[in-house]
């Protein structure tokens, strides 16, 4: 059974940084695109960033230049480095990945809370 587990969330002051991790476990043949989403209170879940199996990245306009997505394929782990955080970044952050076991499907983590105090 494949699981995604996020970690690294917490409380940080505005202007600070956090690094989120997303670890995939289970019988995994390959991991295609990994993605980060977030959901702020009272708002819909929104896409934040993606990274393909080949390392190509893409970002939402609201985080471009402040967030960096990366991955360690040997460890089946993805990361989201978040710098210059502001109060609008407060949300539950979820990772998602397309994983082959060997058939491919999308998996979600349980989320990690990020709170930015102003």
Q: Which properties best describe this structure?
A:
mainly beta; 7-stranded mixed β-sheet; 118 residues; globular
Describe this structure in words.
- Helices cover 0% and strands 58% of the residues.
- It contains no helices and eleven strands.
- Strands 2, 4, 5, 6, 9, 10 and 11 form a seven-stranded mixed sheet that branches. It has a four-stranded antiparallel sheet with strand order 1-3-8-7, with no helix packed on it.
- Strand 4 and strand 5 form a beta hairpin.
- Low-pLDDT sequence parts: none
Note the quaternary state here. Answer: single chain
Summing up helix and strand content along with how strands pair, one would put the structural category as mainly beta
Number of strands: 11
**What is the typical, i.e. mean, pLDDT?**
96
Give the overall form. globular
Sheet-strand content, in percent, reads: over 45%
In angstroms, what separates the terminal alpha carbons?
40 Å
Number of separate helices: 0
Helix share bin? under 10%
> Helix and strand succession?
EEEEEEEEEEE
Characterize the largest beta sheet: strand count, sense, and whether it forms a barrel.
Answer: 7 strands, mixed
Rg, Cα atoms, Å: 14 Å
